[in-house]
């Protein structure tokens, strides 16, 4: 071998020794990884942990090495994790993969770990090498994100805000360091969980709602954002419910007087008649037609007329019984439905109604004197027949000079419309 060949051979030998030195120091490599590392033998005995594993699990290396790896797993998953570990060792071509696992710290607290598992061959036999990190915060954030998204979908589907509020306080108790949570709307407690030992943090929920929590520590920005998302979801659900109720109210009530409209009148009348037929009683319909209302509009204008109609509606509600229905039938006509009455009681209510209208009305700086022709239909037949009978009786009252009560001459007991 010449000098040049000898020099080359010597250089390669030096390189090989340097590589051998590198390969003989795997612990230094594992210590330098940005993740926790735990190596265990086939029998579950821990043979190596790096510094980050000590920090993650809360043990010194001397306390772990030689002990069982099952110590690092929550008791409820130990059997399953042990079977999986045995399967890894028994597999001819072991897989290496990443998965989310549960870990158990020395203080008894659990965490969600993102771990890569795999079998490595060593001179002392195969080892199960686990490399990973604590992703509990990220996992919790994902759980909260999915939960608030599901809550939002339920809110859009029309779920009851009270049910959503109960779900929200439990969600915060289970996913946040919160000792107590409470949802209030217009000052009333809608849902509560845990103890609010002190005022705690307040998150507005729209103009009338508030979310209160008592936290066990200062919340992170992500946790605060989650609380706000929950509050916004509840606020949206409450606003939608109010809008739905407003639309339902407008669909069933007269916009000027606030009385029932024809749709709600028909519904209440049908229910009253059904109960009358079942119980054997009678239902009365009072058709109230103002006698000289046109004079108010012609003399003082429609604003004064509207004010007078509003006052008439108020008086009618005061003149009848609490369970009776008062509706604006149209223009200056009103209808009252009285359930479980006889001839005497129906006429008594009708006379109170007529007297209530007769009292002078002050509206728009002027005093108005009105009267009403009140027709009474009595029976348990078809709704249209009963209204027609009351209307016909009211027509006779008006034809006789108005300001009086007229009872339909025939009780309505069938679907035939009786005109008296």
Q: What do these coordinates show?
A:
This protein is α+β, with helices and mostly antiparallel strands and 420 residues long. The longest helix has 32 residues, at 221-252. The radius of gyration is 41 Å and the shape is rod-shaped. A hairpin with a 2-residue loop joins strand 13 and strand 14 (366-368). The chain has 3 domains: 32-134, PAS domain (Beta-Lactamase), CATH 3.30.450.20; 138-252, GAF domain (Beta-Lactamase, 2-Layer Sandwich); 262-407, Alpha-Beta Plaits, CATH 3.30.70.270. It contains 13 helices and 16 strands. Helix 7 runs antiparallel to helix 8 and helix 11 packs antiparallel against helix 12 (343-358). The model is unreliable at 15-24 and 415-420 (pLDDT under 50).
CATH domain topology of the largest domain: Alpha-Beta Plaits
Structural class comes to: alpha+beta
Q: Give the helix tally.
A: 13
Helix content: 40-55%
β-strand amount: 25-35%
At a glance:
This protein has 13 helices and 16 strands. It is an alpha+beta fold and 420 residues long. The chain folds into three domains: 103 residues, PAS domain (Beta-Lactamase); 115 residues, GAF domain (Beta-Lactamase, 2-Layer Sandwich), CATH 3.30.450; 146 residues, 2-Layer Sandwich (Alpha-Beta Plaits).
């Amino acid at each position: 071998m010449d000098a040049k060949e000898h020099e080359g051979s010597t250089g390669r030998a030096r390189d090989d020794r340097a590589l051998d030195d590198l390969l003989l120091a795997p612990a230094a490599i594992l210590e330098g990884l940005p993740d926790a590392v735990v190596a265990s033998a086939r029998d579950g005995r821990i043979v190596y942990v790096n510094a980050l594993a000590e920090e993650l699990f809360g043990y010194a290396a001397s306390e772990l090495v030689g002990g069982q790896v099952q110590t690092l797993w929550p008791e409820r998953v130990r059997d399953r994790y042990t079977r999986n570990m045995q399967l890894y060792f028994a597999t001819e071509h072991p897989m290496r993969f990443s998965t989310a696992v549960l870990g158990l710290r020395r203080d008894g607290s659990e965490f969600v770990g993102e771990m890569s598992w795999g079998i490595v061959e060593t001179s002392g036999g195969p080892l199960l090498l686990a490399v990973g990190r604590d992703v509990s915060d990220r996992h919790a954030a994902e759980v909260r994100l999915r939960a608030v998204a599901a809550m939002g979908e339920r809110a859009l589907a029309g779920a009851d805000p009270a049910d959503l509020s109960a779900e929200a306080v439990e969600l915060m108790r289970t996913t946040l360091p919160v000792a107590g949570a409470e949802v209030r709307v217009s000052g009333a407690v809608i849902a509560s969980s845990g103890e609010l030992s002190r005022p705690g943090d307040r998150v507005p929920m729209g103009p009338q709602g508030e979310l209160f929590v008592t936290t066990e520590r200062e919340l992170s920005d992500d946790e605060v954002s989650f609380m706000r998302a929950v509050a916004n979801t509840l606020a949206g659900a409450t606003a939608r419910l109010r809008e739905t109720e407003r639309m339902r109210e407008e669909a069933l009530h007269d916009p000027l007087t606030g009385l029932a409209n024809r749709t709600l009148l028909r519904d209440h009348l049908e229910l009253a008649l059904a109960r009358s037929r079942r119980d054997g009683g009678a239902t009365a319909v009072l058709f109230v037609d103002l006698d000289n209302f046109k004079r108010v509009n012609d003399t003082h204008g429609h604003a004064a007329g509207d004010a007078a109609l509003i006052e008439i509606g108020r008086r009618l509600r005061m003149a009848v019984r609490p369970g009776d229905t008062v509706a604006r039938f149209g223009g200056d006509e009103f209808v009252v439905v009285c359930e479980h009455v006889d001839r005497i009681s129906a006429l008594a209510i009708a006379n109170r109604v007529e007297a209530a209208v007769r009292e002078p009305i002050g509206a728009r700086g002027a005093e108005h004197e009105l009267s009403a022709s009140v027709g009474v239909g009595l029976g348990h037949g078809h709704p249209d027949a009963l209204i027609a009978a009351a209307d016909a009786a009211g027509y006779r009252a008006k034809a006789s000079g108005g300001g009086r009560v007229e009872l339909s001459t025939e009780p309505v007991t069938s679907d035939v419309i009786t005109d008296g």
